[in-house]
Amino acid sequence: MRISNVPVPEEHLLAIAVGILLQRVRPSILPGSRRLQQFVGLSLIGAATSIVVQSMAAASDVRLDQPDRLVMRGPYTVSRNPMYVGWALIHLGVGVASGACWIVATLPAASVLVHRGIRHEERMLRATFGDGYDCYRAAVPRYLPRLRRNTHSAAGPGMGTSPEASVRAGA
Hints:
This protein is mostly helical. Helix content is 60%, strand content 0%.
């Protein structure tokens, strides 16, 4: 696994830094039990770190900045952007664990910026992989897993729900 293959979450890091600065200038504490905040925040950070590490492992043999194939294993079977989801959950976890309203409040702005970058990546992937990416996109949601399994893939009846089957059929 190459660490250089991990996209640095600049938007989230900048937003957290802005939140920390705002917290120092005009403190605003989240309501509720401090212990509960720490438990929930650290739990979010732990779960999110697991998602990021699993995503890194699944994408370890693909250069994410210039992919030669789609990553469709591990967390990428339930989300097309699990690493970004993980970074957002870490951002939320840091805010909740620290009890800092401002850190939590910067999450939407960071998420909008990340989303804009993802839309650009999607256009690039569509141009590079064509129908294969379209099938993967139809089978796997952009961010959060579906609550119910999709019983029909974009590749057609009988192909199952796996993104790999959809891409093979579409390629």
